[in-house]
Structures are given as C-alpha cells and as structure tokens.
Write a structure and sequence with these properties.
By secondary structure, this protein is α/β, with parallel strands linked by helices. The protein is built from 17 helices and 21 strands. The structure holds 1-deoxynojirimycin.
Length: 575
C-alpha cells in the first residue's frame, strides 16, 4: 500500500518549521516526577521517548518560569529562571540536550505582554515614591497612568480584561498608599501590562531571547503576540456592539490589539533569531481580525508562523472550515509563509468535546446533553484532515488520547483566574488542563509517584490511559501515531501546494496535495462531514493510506474501484 519513496532529500531541503508537527506540553499537567502533584521538567524528560514514539517533530512547553502561578505560569516573576516546583535551569538544559539527541526540537513560551506583579520590575514600582527618580524609571516600564476624574478615582479608559471585569486597577503601593495612578492588566490583576514604547522593555526582552537561545532553545511561541503595542492616545473602546465572547476575545477594533507598531518589535526579534545557527524560530499566539491581517505577522522579516485560530473557531462546519482554509492559504502565500493549524490547546474546550453534537444544536457547555462518542469520532476525523493541510500543525497534550473536557471539577479545586474573576459564571480553562492518565492501574493514572494531583482526575479515565491505548490498533493514540508516520513518509504533505477537488460528494471536503516540484505521488485528503456513508469518485483511487475510523472499504461498482467512507470519517488516498 505504501510505495517506498525517498523523502529524506526533499524534507531536508526545506526548513524544519515549515511543516513541523509540534506537541504542546502544559508542564503542570503532563508528568510529575517528584510526586508533589504538579508536573515538572524531569517528568517531561522521562517521557521524551513517548513523544518520539508518537512521531512529533518538536515540543512546545508552556511557561515554566518562576511564577506565583496565578495564571498557570503566564504570570512570570523571573524570565531567566525555572519555577522551583517545576525544576531547575539544569533540568531545562538536560531536557534540551536529551530532546536534541532524539531529533526533537524544543520551543519555549515567551510572555512579553505582561509580567507577574511579583516580577522585580513591578516590585520596584510598588516600593517607590511617586515622583521620585526610581518611580519615574520603574513606572515607565508598565502601562501605568494617572486616573481620570477629580480625585483620579476613575480608570484612564474603559478597557476590559480578557478574564472578565475591568482592565485597570488602582495602584496601591507596598506600604498601603493608594496612589492617583492605575495600571493596565488586560488579563488578571496580577499581570500588569508592560509598556513597549519604553526602550528598556525592548532591550530586556531581547536579552531574554538571547539568554534562552544561547542555551539551545529552538524557538519561542509568543504569548498574546498581537497585544504588545497599545494606542498611546488611550481612546475608550466601543464595546456596545460586541457580544460578550468577543469582548473577552479579540474585540475587533480594540486600541490594544493588532496595532501596526507591533510589527516593529518582531522585525527586531527576527533579526536576533537569524543570527543563530541554526536560525531560531517564532510562532505567534496571534489573534487578528482577518486572515489578511494575520498573514502580515508572517512577512519574511517577522514571525515564522502564527496559530490560525479562525480555523479552530470554525468548528465542525464544512463551509466555515473551507472558507478559513482558503483565506489562510491565500494570504499566507502572498507573504511566502506556511499556515499553522491547531484544534486544541490549554485555553479552549478540548476538541473531542467541542465537536460533540448537542441535543439542542447549540455549542457544548457544562449543562448541555451531548454525544461524546460522536464528538470523539469527529475530532479524530478533524485531526486526520488537519494533518493533511499544507503547513505546520500543533497538537495539545492528551488529544492523542481523545481526552474529553472535564466540566465537573469541584469549584474549590479550580484555579483559573477566569473562574475566579467571573465569580464562577465562566468555568474557565481548568477542564482542559487535567493531568494526563498514563497508566490504568496506579494512583493518579501514573501521573506521578504519589496520589497527589493539582486538579482531580475523573474516575473513568482508565480507558483513556496511554497504557490502554498504545498497543490497541483501534485506539485514538494509534490513529495519531499512524497519521504522523504517514505524514513523514509523504513528500506531498507538509509544505507543498493544495487544490480543492470539486467532484466531492455532498458533505465531503476534499483537497489534493502535490510536492512543490510535482514529481512525487500526490495525495487526496478528504473528510466526510455528513451523517451518511459516502462513495468517493473512482478517479480519486481506492488506496486508503490512512483513515480516522475503521469504517472505510474499497468496493467495485460498475467495474471501477471506489472507496466508501463512513459518516464523520477522514481519509488520505494515494491519488
Ligand atoms: C494566552 C495564554 O495561552 C493563556 O493561557 C494566558 O492566560 C493568556 N495568554 C495571558 O498570558
């Protein structure tokens, strides 16, 4: 079935990041080596072979810097050290070395929009006297402004926090003095936004990049990449026309997102990354209002890639998926960059649950009746389809096990500031951060050597465990492994061109992939999004290289061979 092709020369001729499959580790929930209930760097080192077996090219590790963990480590107190609960600098050095020895790249997470309020810089603000030289210097590193109104007791603007509630808090000094100043925090009030117009901020982050690049890190995922530049006129935002979900998300037109000035920062960063051998890379967590605006971040002298959240948000909807793919591919082509696809991460409801059909047709929530089996089946199909798209792809830990979202975590165990700031009206993101089940017969499913776990794991997760799935050909894990293996074997996947196949049956999205030079076999990638089995045209061939379910059969009709694929199933065919 798999014609042997020599893909090595082809693959080596293009930079690794253009079509890499990157596995996201959320370190607190991946593997706990020391038994304190919090996943750690030694835990990741112990599982590097697992990632090699799965077949990914790189690992992106969410923040492990020193942090009070008010936002899972996205509140950084020291950008040049490792949180003691997660390990040491020696551990990350060992992790990089051992990953590289296995041909795995290591991507870290940089958080340049804000620091923790425990960061040295913000502490300097809290311990200085307004008007003093120390105050002038330290406060200018943050978005700290005088309040409005007679007593300065109104915030400088009406900007809202992405985590619910106001985006500004009054600045109260360490000695209890209530000042006339307010600080901006587009996220939690423990995450003050830094001011990127200050050259000290720019110099500091450039130095942080070098600190980690010098240690051998292959690249950075950039947190809130679209948020660093703010409109310095501080205009109020017109929220009136926006639904709540957008106020908490991209909020189109907001004077703090996707400002043109942000691109200057990435030009400086790219110049630094390019001085390394091999060049280091960036992937932006970039929320932009259109595919056109998103592609600007991937101009040749800026970021290498950015997540395409429009595709993630398209859901299980053929028209939206197709429109998103078209807009993304077309706009990325203009700047010569590969698109980047993602279906799950540590901020969204896991896609095995998100894709579940509900009894009333609305989006899945904690209170809806939904069909989890079909959700998983759709998620498997969506992943197989996504891995056939041009460009790179990101996988989130646990999706290879088909893990569902955990909606019923007890309130007292929830830690997400979104839950806290919304006073429990928004469940937040803890449900996709529950520690992984590795084994089916140990405390905490083998997450760590004790039964401690920073979030409780559901009682019925044994079936999802790695132990139960790795040797079971019908498992989600094996499906991911087969997909990644096949992707590596196919020179037509990854970075080559695509065209839609227009004779697809109703409810089927299909596209054809070719190698750039066109002299290698091509592949048809198809997903049947309908609820019925579909007979594919014989011109597509009947040679299934990969399928998301066992519901696939070659049949002979009128003397020609067709593939018939089950409902909610994706396949790759040799065309
Ligand atoms: C995006 C990160 O993915 C999320 O987890 C975090 O809470 C916010 N940025 C703030 O840093």
């Amino acid at each position: 079935m798999n014609a042997p092709v020599d893909v090595c020369a082809y693959r080596q001729s293009r930079p690794w990041w253009r079509d890499a499959v990157v596995y996201q580790v959320y370190p607190r929930s991946f593997a706990d080596a020391n038994g304190d209930g919090i996943g750690d760097l030694p835990g990741i080192i112990e599982r590097l072979d697992y990632l090699v077996d799965l077949g990914v090219d790189a690992v992106w590790i969410s923040p492990f810097y020193t942090s009070p963990l008010h936002d899972g480590g996205y509140d950084v107190a020291d950008f040049r050290d490792v949180d003691e609960r997660l390990g040491t600098l020696a551990d990350i050095d060992a992790l990089i070395e051992q990953a590289h020895a296995r041909n795995l790249r290591v991507i870290m997470d940089i958080v340049p929009n804000h620091t923790s309020n425990e960061h040295r810089w913000f502490q300097e603000v809290l311990h200085s006297e307004p008007g003093s030289p120390t105050w002038e210097e330290s406060s200018s590193r943050f978005m700290i402004r005088l309040g409005k109104g007679k007593d300065h007791n109104e915030p400088p603007t009406n900007w809202r926090s992405v985590f619910h509630g106001p985006g500004w808090s009054r600045l109260v000094l360490a000695n209890g003095t209530i000042t006339d100043y307010w600080y901006l925090h587009l996220f939690d009030s423990t995450q003050p936004d830094v001011d990127w117009t200050n050259p000290q901020v720019r110099a500091e982050f450039e130095d942080i990049l070098r600190f980690w690049f010098d240690r051998g890190v292959d690249g950075f995922r950039i947190d809130v990449a679209h948020g660093l530049a703010k409109d310095q006129q501080l205009p109020d935002m017109d929220y009136a026309s926006l639904p709540q979900s957008e106020i908490l998300g991209l909020a189109p037109g907001a004077p703090y997102w996707d400002q043109d000035e942000v691109h200057e920062i990435y030009r400086e960063w790219r110049a630094i990354a390019d001085t390394y051998d091999p060049p280091r890379i960036f992937c932006g967590e970039t929320w932009a209002p259109t595919a056109e605006r998103l592609a600007l971040y991937q101009r040749p002298d800026e970021l290498h890639t950015s997540f395409n959240f429009d595709y993630l948000a398209a859901g299980w909807d053929a028209d939206k998926m197709r429109a998103s793919i078209d807009a993304t591919v077309a706009n990325h082509l203009k700047v010569g960059a590969p698109p980047t696809w993602v279906l799950s991460n540590h901020d969204v409801v896991r896609h095995a649950t998100r894709f579940s059909p509900t009894s009333d047709g609305t989006a899945v929530s904690a209170t809806s009746h939904f069909d989890a089996q079909r959700g998983l089946r759709r998620a498997q199909a969506a992943t197989v389809f996504m891995l056939g798209l041009p460009g790179s792809a990101y996988l989130y830990q646990g999706e290879e096990l088909g893990l569902p979202e955990v909606f019923d975590l007890p309130g007292e165990s929830r830690q997400d500031p979104v839950w806290k700031r919304s006073k429990g009206t928004d469940l937040g993101r803890d449900g996709c951060r529950v520690p992984l089940p590795w084994s089916d017969n140990e405390p905490n499913y083998g997450f760590g050597p004790t039964n401690a776990s920073w979030l409780p794991q559901p009682a019925d997760w044994a079936n999802f465990s790695v132990a139960q799935q790795k040797d079971n050909d019908a498992s989600t894990w094996r499906m991911y492994q087969r997909a990644l293996e096949q992707r590596r074997r196919e020179p037509a996947l990854g970075d080559g061109p695509m065209v839609w196949v227009d004779d697809a049956p109703e409810g089927v999205l299909a596209l054809k992939r070719f190698t750039n030079d066109g002299d290698q076999p091509s592949v048809v990638i198809a997903v049947n999004m309908s609820e019925e089995a579909q007979q594919l045209p014989s011109s597509w061939g009947a040679d299934a290289l990969l399928a998301s379910s066992a519901d696939v059969a070659a049949v002979t009709i009128d003397e020609s061979e067709h593939l018939v694929i089950g409902p909610e199933t994706a396949v790759w065919l040799r065309a």
